[in-house]
Amino acid sequence: xxxxxxxxxxxxxGGSLRLSCAASGIxxxxxxxxxxxxxxxxxxxxxxxxxxxxxxxxxxxxKGRFTISRDNAKNTAYLQMNSLQPEDTAVYxxxxxxxxxxxxxxxxxxxxxx
Length: 114
Hints:
Elements lengths: L1 E5 L2 E4 L4 E8 L8 E6 L6 E6 L5 E3 L7 E6 L4 E6 L8 E9 L2 E4 L3 E6 L1
Parallel strand pairs: 2-11
Antiparallel strand pairs: 1-3, 3-8, 4-5, 4-9, 5-6, 7-8, 9-10, 9-11
């Protein structure tokens, strides 16, 4: 199982980015996906999740600004991030669980300048 995260970068406050997480070696349509983030000096925190039935949940800090989605035909999950703020600066990781084992992507850095 491999998860490949991409789409991070440098953006000004108020801007947008879309992260992608491409999965391989797994029945993607059968799994839930999640995005976490870890800011410098802070613990990793859950940002958003999406079930195999596309039911979504969000951290309070990103509700109304971020949208998680999935494209089962492309084995890819997305995190659309709008109205980005400097406090959103972090390394973003995608993750899933398959047969009770957790898998993580390598992380993609999002930097929001003020």
